[in-house]
Amino acid sequence: MTSQVDFDPESPRDERSSDTAASGSTVAAAEGNDDDTTDRAAGEPPAAGSPATIHIPVMQREVVAAMDARPGAVLVDGTLGGGGHTRMLAPLVLPGGQVIAVDRDASAVARTLETVRDLPVQAFAANYADIPEVLEHCGIPLVDGILLDLGLSSDQLADRERGFSYQSDGELDLRFDTSTGQPAWLLVQKLSEVHLADLIYQYGEERLSRRIARRIVAERQRVPIRSALQLATLVRQCVPRSKNHSIDPATRTFQALRIAVNEELKWLEVALRRLPACLKPGGKLVIISFHSLEDRLVKNAFRDDPRLDVVTRKPLRPLDDEIDENFRARSSRLRVAQRNDRAADDIYVR
Ligand SMILES: C[S@@+](CC[C@H](N)C(=O)[O-])C[C@H]1O[C@@H](n2cnc3c(N)ncnc32)[C@H](O)[C@@H]1O
Predict the structure, then answer these.
(1) In terms of CATH architecture, what is 3-155+265-347?
(2) Whose CA is nearest to atom 17 of ligand 1?
(3) Using one digit for the tens of pLDDT, what is the confidence trace for 48-62?
(4) In Å, how far from its chain's centre is CA 161?
(5) CATH code at 162-262
(6) In this structure, what are the phi and psi dihedrals at residue 258, rounded to the nearest 5 degrees?
(7) Which sequence spans correspond to the domains of the chain?
(8) Cα(190) to centroid of ligand 1, in Å?
């Protein structure tokens, strides 16, 4: 029942989709980590070709309730990651429903595909902003719900080759999709001091951005900054540790570079404009964000879009028991909007 293609929005109706026989579906649960918790980074990423994930999906109860998963429903998971949310939702839409899942990280899609064998899931390597084209490719006009769980997964964080972990001496890449854009080390190498400082301030909300940028520029004249560990070490020399030591001083700088290389806010804005047009009347758009820059965009778009009714006036937050079990969940905020039938899609360019 499971299939995957690398999705190319330029050729939405190509014939590359094929049913894939996938192997078993073990999920090794371990403490999850996100942007600011690399001090607690999980040891090893799941081995290539292994179905395992160390990512613990956040706000599971809330997601199931908000997505209104029921037999026959067609749902979209726009951020498949380790597949935790998809594996929760897919059995609930049987019989008759399905989950269409996408992720920009083709390696995550390939690995997770193994774990959704025997579930009604089609998975695609694609940007969530291209969900309209993915649905067109699948021959699905409108869906009952779309979930976006923003940011990065614990699997990506634990992959030492990609630079998401501040401990890693792998290359400082930070891209979800390494086939496009520029690695973060290149930005660190070529941006002017002012530009670097602005970027770290704007996307990391780091008030010591000027000091960090000055330090980076001085260091790169001495030696190229290529690894995550090199950068984290520099930043730690500029930013005092938080009082309870729970947050690494490099957190905000890494967040800023990651947002920049993946153009995360741009794609979120595009998705917020395009995705309501994919929903049936009554269909839900459910978005989990992890920092205020994302949450503000979601809040304002939900409020201002005449096609949507806001379901959650205030964002839902994880309960204490979840935070105790999964530290990464502590900064998650879930917002829900519902498609109404009062406004037409042609007020927006898709
Ligand atoms: C927090 S993880 C999702 C975890 C997933 N919900 C689970 O339960 O395992 C976020 C995922 O979103 C993906 N992602 C980030 N930006 C994306 C985009 N614009 N389009 C598609 N996927 C994206 C990342 O590659 C990452 O795998």
Answers:
(1) 3-Layer(aba) Sandwich (3.40)
(2) 104
(3) 445 579 999 999 999
(4) 18
(5) 1.10.150.170
(6) -65, -45
(7) 3-155+265-347, 162-262
(8) 28
